[in-house]
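Suppose a colleague, Dr. K., hands you the sequence of a protein chain of 479 amino acids and asks what its three-dimensional shape might be. Before reaching for any lab equipment, you can write down a predicted structure in token form. Begin with the sequence itself:
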Amino acid sequence: MNKGYNEFDEQKITEFRRPPQVKSSKAQIFAKFHKIPTIRFEDQELTSFSGMIVFQLLFKRLGLRKRLKGCFSHLKISPIYGHHLVVMLLITHLILGFRRLREIDYYKDDPMILRTLGLRSLPDVSTISRNLSQMDDASVDSVQDLSRSLVVEGLVREQFPRLTLDFDGSVLSTKGHAQGTAVGFNKARKGARSYYPLFCTIAQTGQFFDMHHRPGNVHDSNGAPEFMQKCFEYIRCHFPGSIIESRMDGAFFNQKIIDMMSERRISFTASVPFYRFTELKQLIETCDSWIDIDEKWSYFETQWKPKSWNSRYRFVFTRKKVKKIQKGALQLDLFEPVSEQYQYKAIVTNKTESAKAVVLFHNGRGSQELLFGNAKNDTALSVIPCKRLNANRIFTLASMMAHNLSREMQMVANPGKTHARPKRPAGWTFKRLDTIRHQILQRAGRFIKPQGKLTLIMSGNHAVKKDLMHLVSKLLEAA
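The predicted structure, expressed as tokens, is then:
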């Protein structure tokens, strides 16, 4: 061995013996395209929504078409396109990501959509509008009951030991003068006419359970006691052995609602509005024994009731350290002064768990706001397309069902977590419908019949193939 041999020379020899990596030439990568192709339109059984086959399987598994048809059996009017087909078309329309009825024209000849709906041609927009105008209150109630039933079937399959119902309202605005709308409080669009429905959602699945439709000029608690009692009774009837919980904001803090839930053994938490009770400020100011939860949060609790109430309840008072914005000039060359102050919150509850568990549970309400945001963006929950009240109620229910069905598909395809966690998050890591739309649904394909067997041809993208075939196999297993 030579004197000058060292580890560096050994590394060079190793690299020299290693086979050279095959690199692509510029000619293999780049191409010059100058000629613009001639555009020609032909009917060749081409589809832009090959991935909708997963929803075709889901609709078939749920028997959606037959069950929707039963919702309108009382109507004497029997148009060529039945009312159930129009509602099913609305659900499909919203799953595809369209918002306005007029946009149906852009896919009315798509063979995958026609197969999903079981039609040879789609109705015109005028036909759909006329059909929606014939909806009566009984039709809306039947579709609403079907929407609840589909959610309950998923909950029965998963067997959750406890179910958390969240209640809150959401503003649906319009530029027009739709029947039943009114001008109310609207931070985003002041002076706009709107509806203000009250929604009940299931935290464990991130689905809409039910809706109480209202004009836009009512208070959050308008009609709430009756609607909430109806939801609790429905869930109790189908899940007699499950623990039922509920979370609400300060708008629902009144004696009638609190007493109703306590009498029905519903575990609840509700925010307490400070501006209505000056005594709460005194309780906080006189307290000198705050108990730390962590570095930011601390609490104390007491049994208390407003003067006009008959019963006392457990009140948990929390404070959170927040950085205070420093006004005036700062000595940036020396230091940046930071002071802290507290934000206070009061929660009323009948839970017997620790204060930390109560606070975490109540703070989990933020997931409902995310649900509203996703539904408004992905399934057009905020759109008011028609002038008639019942037509708009049906559209809102179709939006809720489109959102729920996207969650149902993912629940069937992937196992979830049924054990309870402090904030009661959903048992699945759900993808947004908009994400599913871009990754799977909006895929070009072509229907062919080799040897008489119907076949859908798609591009050979590995990621799409993996996700799509996983969903198809799971839906076929569950059928």
